[in-house]
Amino acid sequence: MSESSRLSGEVFYPDPVAAAAAHVPDHEALRAAAAADPLGFWAARAAELEWYKPWDKVLDDSNAPFFKWFTGASTNIVHNCIDRHLSGPYRNKLALIWVGENGTDHQTFSYFSLNREVTKMANVLKAMGVGKGDRVTIYLPRIPEVVFAMLACAKLGAIHSVIFAGFSADALQDRIGDSESKLVITADGSWVNGSVFKLKDIVDEALRFSPTVENVIVVRRTGHEVAMDPLRDHWYHDLTALPIAKGPCATEPMDAEDTLFILYTSGSTGKPKAILHTHGGYMVGTYTTLKYTFDIRDEDRWWCTADPGWITGHSYLVYGPLLTGATTFMFEGGPTYPYPNRWWQLIEYYGINIFYTAPTAIRSLMRFGEAWPNRHDLSSLRLLGSVGEPINPEAWQWFHRVIGKGQCPIMDTWWQTETGMFQICPTPSLPLKPGSGGKPFFGQEAEILDEAGQPVADGEEGFLVLKNPWPAMLRTLYRDDERYVKTYWSKYPGKYLAGDSARRDKDGYFWIIGRTDDVIKVSGHRLGTAEVESALVSHPAVAEAAAIGLPHEVKGNAIHAFVVLRLGHEPSPALAEELRKHVSIHLSPIAKPDWIDFTEKLPKTRSGKIMRRVLKARALGQDEGDTTTLDE
Ligand code: WT7
What we know:
alpha/beta, 30 strands, 7-stranded mixed β-sheet, binds 5'-O-[(S)-butoxy(hydroxy)phosphoryl]adenosine, 8-stranded mixed β-sheet, single chain, globular
């Protein structure tokens, strides 16, 4: 996309009546107030939630960058997501609406019945010996049980690790092993565009080398025949029929800083890292950002299209909406099956008010034309949202005009698995510039720095950093404090390095450009070049591999891999196809390279590091830049 169109200077002003009625009627006024007293701002938000015991200190920064929030406090996020609603006006309100891919399966849960289901699952987990601090791997499709499982773990104080159900057995095994999970919750299969994807088979393969796992709970979804290990595997419906599943289950009081979950995400080097989030700060952060940015009201039906396997699903499909007492909508399927009007049909039928999705989805749906959305009454929509990668102006305009009918502001939210909550985002009272996420959230400050750590001039590109701690920030990388400090806090001591390049304009709006490290965003999914490369070299024909991201019209970036073959193997289109499939099977279909190039040699530095920058410049026909360190 051209630079001029990204910085077009077009501004969309909020409707004054709607802005005045929003939770944040005057964006700049609240920004100024929160900037003057960020801890006061966060303490006031925390006080809107319930705590078993209040905090001694809002922020303890005595051991930075190991920040602690709400120290001394006791709570449990499930108390605020569910328990506190049971005695109030939300008891019979819909908490969760779920629709299956086939369109006929449909379930709804009030806060009362959500509690019943979560309690049942918590009782089962407890009977299987799961308790505070234990790790539980959740590998489920987008079905209600994924929500129950996350909340049941949290209720008991166990740490969940949700793995996106599109990851391969190898990836699953790595993550189960790293977290030393004692239990896995999965399903027989998932529905993907009308066919069965055999999840349980993948779990079986992953568990061949997973000594820590004692039990597997299997939810029946697709109903096909699956192998069950009588000592290890249990049907969920059999377990819930047992007396152990009955009766109440106490919500475990947790220290605010106790771990809520870990979530694996890709980094620049090596294996995926487990981002660690806690009960107290994460709860306050997701609650506040969702309420203010998407202006959640009692009567709203909120739809976040993300999968619970990613942070967006954790924060804004499950936890955030329940914390605000909203009705959250979850759809098992994708946007184009059986036809490309599926999402628009659901918005109409269920009267969705706020719709939060990713630019890649918008771009793919745009290609089917306006006739599909125009068949539906989308007038229930009040606000739209975008996340995952920069949104190009064409996609922004289409989303705004065709889906929002020019009436719905688009909240472009920049954040990360690490940040847990929105960091740069508007609210409905901030004028919008298409392609910009607006300004740092209340209480937050961001900066753009040059290599030496000096702030760059407005309009110049540089490294995006966050200047102060925030409640939902990651606390560390699970069992790897050193890598936590090195990755995020060592380039510019005292400042959080986001890993993105960005610009700030003269009005203080931030414009994200893209990753500066070896992370590639493909269709909004985060992948590391190292993961793709190690999947490639696990193929017997491959000696060496390098992966880069190249611009792609729909996906944002697509993976281009360069492969050096082992002696005795010849390049061929058939082998290229085989390697693409290999990555798909051994890592994930989302990581499947679009192109494979066979080469004799990879450009490397004299110390042996692959120069992906040079490969990228060559592939794009650009200047290779400084190649003085190139060993050729
Ligand atoms: C990376 C984080 C947390 C949301 C899902 C992704 C990119 C995310 C935006 C946005 C431009 C964005 C960044 C970031 N990103 N949102 N609104 N505009 N870029 O979480 O998988 O941890 O990826 O996604 O590059 O660093 P994630």
